[in-house]
Write a structure and sequence with these properties.
The chain has 402 residues and is of the alpha/beta class. It has 2 domains: 90 residues, Urease, subunit C, domain 1 (Roll); 296 residues, Alpha-Beta Barrel (TIM Barrel). Helices cover 35% and strands 23% of the residues. The strands form 4 sheets. Strands 1, 2, 3, 4, 5, 18 and 19 form a 7-stranded mixed beta sheet that branches. The protein has a 7-stranded parallel beta sheet with strand order 12-11-13-14-15-16-17. Strands 6-7-10 form a 3-stranded parallel beta sheet, with helices on both faces. A hairpin with a 5-residue loop joins strand 8 and strand 9. Helix 5 packs across helix 6 and helix 7 packs across helix 10. The longest helix is centred in the last third of the chain and has 24 residues. The chain is globular. Bound molecules: zinc ion. Zinc ion binds next to loops.
Length: 402
């Protein structure tokens, strides 16, 4: 829940442990003092001055762990998720998707997610007659609202003709139109470019290394970043060699591609929880795509391969950030904790998995305050029960958040 006590103009949280993804173990008995929304002091190991007589609200955090406000590096704010996530994004009315977006914004903050990187939204005709990607509409609406997360958004997906569900994305018939399409999204105000590097045949990348390098050059010149969707190896190879800013999903990597990602400082954004989620649909839905025997084993194989790919990336020294893929996958907006669990289940150390949803995500987001707890920074954090550096399911057990 959000807390009125934590919203007081001067507040001290005492007695909590701290887990911020920079250490392998929690730091006990931390005191954090907040003044007008920013952290003005932080002490460890019980070394804090006596805060009881300083005319501030004191919150006894003993028995909780303080974790930074989280960063969801792969989200789709204007879509609801669930087992029919694609239909929802294609068929649902514009007003409904914007209402869903508001619900998502509220759910994110309650779940301790304060920064969101939206990597694709439908572009729709608005009431004013203008066509605009819905993630940019939500981002602009939420600017300065304390009840909504900070957002950087990609506008719509850009992919090759036939690669994405019809009616969802910006499709280019040939690579010659790619730069123009990228320029249009940047002109709309996109903070990043979402490039879809699965082709109509998923195993053939639709654009060459040179073509993607030209996109990266244009985006960087305009102060934007490039996020490349690659669920197969061919797209990941192009993304790694073109030195995009991030590979999204990266479900199929090999050692040399992982090494190339590391050498070119490309962040991997993991989205493993989607595979856990669709596995659960075997018994919770009757949808053929998830429930038939052939598809059940294909999804299981896909997950095994994706988990091995994350380990290869980790071993090669690739920076790993994490996203829920809510809306553009089956997860919901308040389920980023599931991705941390999925990373740990894949063999990633809990502190690295926590880093992926905090400071690593902040680095990719491009804000040194995002996902970090530091004196002078904004006071966005949650108090959870349990030790997330031993058991990541602690991130579900939020007592208070701000
Ligand atoms: Zn996605």
């Amino acid at each position: 829940m959000t807390s009125t006590r934590l919203q007081a103009s001067r507040v001290a949280v005492v007695g909590a442990a701290l887990a911020d993804g920079t250490t392998e173990q929690v730091r006990p008995d931390v005191t954090v003092v907040i003044e007008r929304g920013r952290i003005s002091g932080m002490w460890f190991d019980g070394a804090a001055p006596d805060v009881s007589d300083l005319n501030m609200t004191v919150v006894d955090g003993s028995g909780t762990t303080l974790v930074p406000g989280m960063v969801d590096s792969h989200a789709h704010l204007s879509m609801p998720g669930g087992a029919r996530w694609i239909e929802r994004g294609v068929l649902d009315a514009t007003d409904e998707l914007l209402t869903v977006g508001e619900e998502n914004g509220e759910a994110l903050v309650r779940a301790g997610v304060r920064w969101v990187r939206d990597v694709g939204a439908p572009q729709r005709r608005l009431a004013n007659g203008r066509h605009r990607p819905l993630n940019l509409v939500l981002r602009d609406r939420w600017l300065g609202l304390p009840t909504r997360p900070y957002v950087r958004a990609a506008g719509s997906w850009i992919g090759a003709d036939g690669a994405l569900p019809p009616g969802l994305a910006i499709e280019v018939a040939h690579a010659g139109n790619l730069i123009h399409a990228v320029g249009e999204q940047l002109n709309q105000g996109a903070d990043l470019v979402k490039l879809y590097l699965d082709g109509p045949d998923r195993h053939i990348a639709p654009f060459s290394i040179d073509e993607v390098q030209a996109v990266v050059a244009l985006a960087h010149e305009r102060g934007a970043r490039v996020a490349a969707h690659a669920s197969s190896l061919s797209g990941a190879v192009v993304a790694a060699n073109a030195a995009v800013d991030s590979v999204e999903h990266g479900f199929v990597l090999d050692r040399s591609t992982a090494e190339r990602l590391a050498a070119n400082h490309v962040t991997l954004v993991s989205t493993l929880a989607v595979l856990h989620s669709v596995q659960s649909f075997r018994t919770t839905t009757t949808i053929e795509r998830f429930a038939s025997d052939a598809n059940v084993s294909a999804i299981a194989e896909r997950r095994e391969c994706a988990e091995e790919s994350v380990r290869l990336a980790r071993d090669a020294g690739v920076a790993i950030a994490a996203g829920s893929d809510f809306g553009g996958g089956s997860l919901r907006a308040n389920q980023l904790a599931w991705e941390v669990e999925a990373l740990v289940a894949a063999g990633i150390e809990p502190h690295q998995a926590l880093a992926a949803v905090t400071w690593r995500g902040g680095d990719l987001y491009g804000d040194r305050d995002a996902g970090r707890i530091r004196v002078g920074g904004p006071a966005h954090f949650s108090l959870v029960h349990g030790d997330p550096l031993v058991d990541p399911s602690a991130l579900w057990r939020i007592w208070l958040t701000r």
